[in-house]
Specification:
Elements: E1 2-5, E2 8-11, H1 17-23, H2 28-44, H3 49-60, H4 65-81, H5 86-99, H6 103-116, H7 121-163
Antiparallel strand pairs: 1-2
C-alpha cells in the first residue's frame, strides 16, 4: 500500500505514527463532541487535563487553520500547567506549528523534545520533514525574490533608457 504525503510517496511499512497526525483529519463529530465536553467543564470552572489534551489533539488533526491555532493555545496552557504532559505537548506543538507552516516554531518545540528524548523516532522523523519543508520552501522563496528583483531591475533599466531619450518636436 502506498501513501502520498507532502508530494512524497512512502510505503506502508515506512509509515510512522506521526505521519498519521499529519495526513489524517479529525471528524467534525469528534471535534464537536470534545468541544462540547471541554466547554461544559470550562463553564463549571474545572477542566480535566485529559479533556483539554483530547480537545487540543482533535483540533491539531483538524483540517482547519483556525482549529490548529486554537490547539496551540490549549497545548501551551497544558505545557505550563501539567509537567507530566510536556512530552506530548511538545510533540503536538511541533505538529501544529508544522501544519501552520511555522517551521521555526515547529523545529524549536521538536528540538526541545529531542533534548529530552534524543532517540525519539517520531521526533527524529519530524525533524527530517521540517528540514525538508524548510529547504523546499526556501528554494521557492528564493525563486520568488529572484523574480521580484529581476522585475525591479528590468523596470529600472526601462526607466533609465526612457529618460535618456531626447523629446521629439514632431
Amino acid at each position: 500500500m502506498l501513501f502520498v504525503i507532502e508530494k512524497k510517496i512512502i510505503m506502508a511499512d515506512e509509515k510512522k505514527p506521526f505521519l498519521l497526525d499529519l495526513q489524517s483529519a479529525s471528524s467534525l463529530d469528534d471535534i464537536e463532541a470534545l468541544r462540547s465536553e471541554y466547554n461544559t467543564q470550562l463553564n463549571s470552572g474545572k477542566v480535566n487535563p485529559q479533556t483539554k489534551f483530547d480537545f487540543a489533539y482533535v483540533l491539531v488533526k483538524s483540517a482547519s487553520r483556525k482549529d490548529h491555532e486554537a490547539a496551540l493555545v490549549l497545548l501551551h496552557e497544558l505545557y505550563k500547567e501539567n509537567p507530566a504532559r510536556r512530552r506530548e505537548c511538545l510533540y503536538y506543538l511541533s505538529i501544529g506549528n508544522f501544519k501552520l507552516s511555522n517551521y521555526v516554531e515547529a523545529r524549536k518545540f521538536n528540538e526541545i523534545l529531542l533534548q529530552m528524548e534524543p532517540r525519539n523516532v517520531q521526533s527524529l522523523k519530524l525533524r527530517e520533514l521540517i528540514d525538508e519543508k524548510v529547504r523546499s520552501d526556501g528554494l521557492i522563496g528564493m525563486a520568488i525574490v529572484g523574480g521580484v528583483v529581476a522585475s525591479v531591475v528590468a523596470f529600472a533599466l526601462a526607466l533609465f533608457a526612457y529618460s535618456g531619450r531626447k523629446p521629439s518636436n514632431g
